[in-house]
Amino acid sequence: MAGDPSTRLVHAARSRETGAPSAPPIVTASVYVSAGDLGEVGYAYGRDGNATWETLEAALGALEDASALAFASGQAATLALLLALAEEGRRIVLPSDGYYGTRKLAAMLETLGPRHVAVDHQDLDAVRGALAERPAALWTETPTNPLLRVMDLERLAGLAAEAEAPLVVDNTTATAVLQQPLARGAAVSLYSLTKASSGHADLLLGAVVSRDAGLLARVRAWRTNGGGIPGPFEAWLAHRGLQTLPLRVTRQSETALAVARHLAGHPAVARVYYPGLEEATLETARKQMPHGFGPLLSFEVAGDAARAQAVVEASRLIAPATSFGGVESTWERRARWASETVASPTLVRLSIGLEAVEDLVADLDQALSASSGSARAS
Ligand SMILES: *Cc1c(COP(=O)(O)O)cnc(C)c1O
């Protein structure tokens, strides 16, 4: 279908036949009526396929002119893709920052075969070096969670092509509306749909999006046989949320940029991390994210961990919670997660929701000053 991705998104998987439901239904069946040779049956058992997943997949695919496979969570999608890419003796080249769960999962898989190495993906010589030795894939993330570092997708795609390895991009923080990895040379876009893509903090799901039919068939085989399938109800909710993604992330990006600028001038803030403020990568960020830099930003509170924790607790508007991309603004001191190795003790990760920017700024100001005398000794 032609047109802007937001137009394709809304019209994907909708029927114009007389009598067709204008909102896609939820199909919850685990078994389907079927007799005889299974090769001739569309659906037989619920682990193989489901019409509600396919609605979500059609919409995800429409956003990137590609095909999509939905999974039970971002991690289930990551696991299936890692297993599909793994070949004996070959390495997955991961980023040294970015979502810690990916590195954790890759480390757990090492004893079973798939090898990995983590290098800084802004250091292109280091990436080239890591790709020199039998790479199975270059697996990157941009902007990274939680430091919002921007990687140059076209350069990384060039290095991956030289090494004859596919480039995988974890596109969770940006979403397909703000950044199109496949159009910049990536073979796969990977998502935690739990975050902004579904956008309402009411489900966990993940997705693998690609134009490589052979790779998708291998990923699908891991989903069918490994069982990391989405629930139909979650898939239905995710499709409902996805349709307003273009509106939500552009508004959240505008607010996040204004908030990031405000925090950068605040005396109680030592450092702000946001792609729109990072001089060294600003040109790359503007090129690959022309419609906004996303809902997520991080900042260091001046002082110690207790002071940062006190700031988080002093907010009246921003909910203390993990995850990101929902309609409600949330924040957390990131280092409270034991496996989070790249966040300093004072790093607060803030997810901008759909509240008015003036209200968020007023709340941030009162939280940053209200807590200044109240930092606890712990
Ligand atoms: C949350 C997240 C994941 C994992 O997704 P789940 O849905 O929690 O399993 C993967 N990558 C990134 C960048 C994330 O933020």
Brief synopsis:
This protein has 378 residues and is an alpha/beta fold.
Features:
single chain; 378 residues; alpha/beta; seven-stranded mixed β-sheet; five-stranded mixed β-sheet; 13 helices; globular; disordered C terminus; binds pyridoxal-5'-phosphate
Q: Tell me about the biggest sheet?
A: 7 strands, mixed
Q: How far apart are the first and last residues' alpha carbons, in Å?
A: 58 Å
Individual helix count: 13
Low-confidence stretches: 374-378
Question: H/E element string?
Answer: HHEHEHEHEHEHEEHHHEHEHEEEH
Average pLDDT number: 95
Bound molecules: pyridoxal-5'-phosphate
Provide the helix percentage: 25-40%
Across the major sheet, the strand order is 1-7-6-5-4-2-3
**Could you tell me the strand content as a percent range?**
15-25%
Structural class: alpha/beta
Rough outline: globular
User: What is the alpha-carbon Rg in Å?
Assistant: 21 Å
SS elements, strand count: 12
